[in-house]
Design a protein that fits this description.
The structure holds two protein chains of two kinds. By secondary structure, chain A is of the alpha+beta class. Chain A contains five helices and eleven strands. In chain B, α2 runs antiparallel to α3, α2 crosses α4 and α3 crosses α4.
């Protein structure tokens, strides 16, 4: 894959007449995986598509890379109430099992930075206006493993709701 | 249209492109009949051939293993 939007290294600049073309070239292996987005239901998804953001309801998702389990679980207990913690190859996923407005989700994501929320996850989520979590394997990385769920009933409701928000997407495997 | 509008449009388009909602009824029908080959073809078409063959079958199985009961209830 060649990208002009990301990666590390210097930007190579080419002058074409009076114009300047900047290219950042890096090589990464792309893989397809699957997961789900955070929209609470299709009604909220439709409102999002019409340009409503802050009052749209989502299940709050958090991606903690390199954080300690105890910190992630504490954050869940303190701010989310019902929640689930999943182990990933790089850390933990935390899923709130009570939907809340995007305004509330974003406020919580900033709070979660203190507990080790992945900064890139915060940036891309804010930019998109919704969250995505991987639930499938990704190359050699295994599926996230469910470690803790504070309410089996709420978890089943959540899993059932995600059937309407399943996604397949391309990502990079560094 | 400004650059920011274009980027936002591209992001929204990305969401539409990766949403499985449109293919799930057909996917569930295939998997319910044990036809993982057909399910893999559906995934291959969805991803414009970027994932196909054994990789598509594995992805189909992984989704089905996790969400099979719920998907069957929803679309079966």
């Amino acid at each position: 894959m060649v990208s002009v939007l990301g990666g590390s290294g210097k930007i190579k600049r080419f002058r074409i007449g009076n114009a300047l073309l900047g290219l950042r070239i890096f090589v990464a292996k792309t893989v397809y995986t699957w997961g789900f987005s955070s929209f609470y239901d299709r009604d909220n998804f439709e409102r999002f598509k019409k340009g409503d953001y802050w009052s749209v309801y989502h299940y709050p998702f958090f991606d903690f890379d390199g954080a300690k389990f105890v910190d992630v679980h504490d954050f869940g207990l303190l701010y989310l109430g019902y929640h689930a913690v999943l182990k990933t190859s790089a850390g933990y996923h935390l899923i709130g099992l009570l939907p809340m407005s995007w305004y509330q989700v974003t406020k919580l994501m900033f709070e979660a930075l203190k507990y080790g929320l992945d900064t890139k996850y915060l940036r891309i989520s804010i930019f998109r206006g919704y969250c995505v979590l991987r639930y499938g394997s990704k190359g050699k990385k295994k599926k996230p493993e469910l470690l803790v769920v504070t309410s089996e009933k709420k978890w089943r409701e959540f899993i059932k709701s995600r059937t309407k928000f399943l996604i397949i997407y391309e990502t990079t495997n560094w | 249209m400004g650059v920011v509008d274009k980027v936002i449009d591209e992001l929204d388009d990305f969401l539409e492109r990766m949403d499985l909602a449109d293919i799930l009824p057909e996917f569930v029908e295939a998997m319910s009949q044990g036809d993982v080959h057909k399910a893999a073809e559906i995934i291959a078409e969805f991803t414009n051939g970027n994932i196909e063959g054994e990789n598509a079958k594995y992805l189909a199985w992984e989704i089905w293993e996790t969400f099979g009961d719920e998907l069957r209830e929803m679309y079966g």
